[in-house]
Structures are given as structure tokens and as C-alpha cells.
Write a structure and sequence with these properties.
mainly alpha; 2 domains; three-stranded antiparallel β-sheet; two-stranded antiparallel sheet; 57% helix; globular; disordered N terminus; disordered C terminus
């Protein structure tokens, strides 16, 4: 019954993003298999679709554990495998392709995964002690899929900084509910890169944050005569 998860992990790490799409170093944008540029919103939609796939997988595995079809140990190992694959892929997309992933980039993913694994260990402890119900477990497991978005934004910000972007702006998702923290970040408008936290950081939404970031280059002052 765990074969589906193994297939999922393999599929995430060998997606069409690497096979048919390419990252244009000159423009800092992705091209599809026909050479057309992908918009930033299209790239973000790719990430969102994979988060949805991951969420469905984690909920299915958690349901199997709750019904006794797999052990707690199998559940924990399977969740670790799935979120590791998804975080790596999200970081690859954010950084601009697998070829732009070096030790520093993988190291940042490793740090984020280490935190997620600690949360997961506590989650397993709560399950073992019977402190949470099956419905509560299904709600909690979704936090692990949503956290993947953080790896994408972390990679995106590093790539934009390397490309010479020095300004950022937090944008609220019009379809989502937002905490007061995110509303405050968005109200600041365009600020220096690094001034504002990335989506999911330092806000009450945490991993459920649906904000996005737009980056800008500093405009050179117009010479006057």
C-alpha cells in the first residue's frame, strides 16, 4: 500500500519542469517546451498544484494510519519521504532549475527539513499518546504540505537577489483570509529586499500563508541638466 507514495516521490523529482522546460539565465525566467516564457503567476501555480498533490497524499497516508492499515513508524517514514521530495522540488523551482542548486541551496532546504522533521516527531508523539483524534490529525498533516511553499519563496528570493533585484513587495491573495501580520506587511508597499519576511514567516498564518512577493530592481536616478 506504500508503493503509491514511492511513485509519488519519484514523480515529483522527475517532473516536466526539468524534462521539457528550461530556465533562461539571461532573462531569469522559465520557458516552456515551445520556448514561450512562463509568467511568475504560472510558476507559482505549478508550486500550488504540487502542494495540492502532496496534501492529498499525506491525508491518504494519515487516514491509513488512523484506520490501522499501516503502523505509526511506517506513517512517519512515509511522510518524511514525501515532504523531503516536495521541499527539494519547490526549492529547485524557486532557485531556477536543478543546475542552479549547489551546496548552499541544498543546505537551506536541509535546515528547513530538519525543523519539519522535529515537528513531525512531536506529531508522532501526540498520536502515540492519544492526545489528538483522527480528524485533528488530518487537519494537522495539511500544515506539512503547505510549508513546502516556504522552500519555493526562499529559493526565489535568493535567485532574485543574485539577479540584482533590491526591492520587494508583499501581495495579499484576494481569495484567502489574512492575519493582521500579513495585512501590515502588504501595507508597507515596496521596500528594500529583506525588509519583510517571506510568506509564512513571522505571521499568524504560518504555513497556511497564501501571500506572494513581487521583486523589483532599483531604478537608476534620471540625470538632470
Amino acid at each position: 500500500m506504500l508503493n503509491d507514495l514511492s511513485n509519488f516521490s519519484s514523480a515529483v523529482l522527475s517532473t516536466r519542469l526539468d524534462a521539457a522546460w528550461s530556465y533562461d539565465e539571461r532573462t531569469g525566467r522559465y520557458r516552456d517546451e515551445r520556448g514561450r516564457f512562463l509568467s511568475q503567476s504560472a510558476v507559482e501555480a505549478i508550486v500550488d498544484s504540487r502542494i495540492e498533490r502532496l496534501d492529498a497524499t499525506l491525508r491518504r497516508i494519515t487516514g491509513m494510519m488512523a484506520s490501522g492499515n499501516i503502523t505509526l513508524e511506517q506513517w512517519q517514514a512515509s511522510v518524511r519521504e514525501a515532504i523531503k521530495a516536495a521541499h527539494i522540488q519547490a526549492a529547485i523551482i524557486g532557485n531556477g532549475g536543478r543546475g542552479r542548486m549547489g551546496p548552499a541551496e541544498y543546505g537551506r532546504v536541509g535546515q528547513r527539513l530538519g525543523q519539519e522533521y522535529r515537528y513531525l516527531q512531536n506529531f508522532a508523539g501526540d498520536l502515540l499518546a492519544g492526545r489528538i483524534s483522527a480528524p485533528m490529525a488530518l487537519a494537522r498533516i495539511s500544515l506539512y504540505s503547505q510549508s513546502v511553499r516556504g522552500s519555493f519563496w526562499q529559493g526565489t528570493e535568493m535567485r532574485r537577489q543574485q539577479q540584482g533585484f533590491s526591492l520587494m513587495r508583499r501581495i495579499l491573495d484576494p481569495q484567502a483570509q489574512h492575519c493582521s501580520d500579513c495585512i501590515g506587511f502588504a501595507a508597507q508597499g515596496i521596500v528594500s529586499l529583506g525588509t519583510l519576511p517571506l510568506p509564512g514567516q513571522r505571521c499568524a498564518c504560518r504555513s497556511r500563508c497564501k501571500c506572494r512577493v513581487v521583486y523589483y530592481r532599483q531604478q537608476a536616478p534620471v540625470a538632470t541638466v
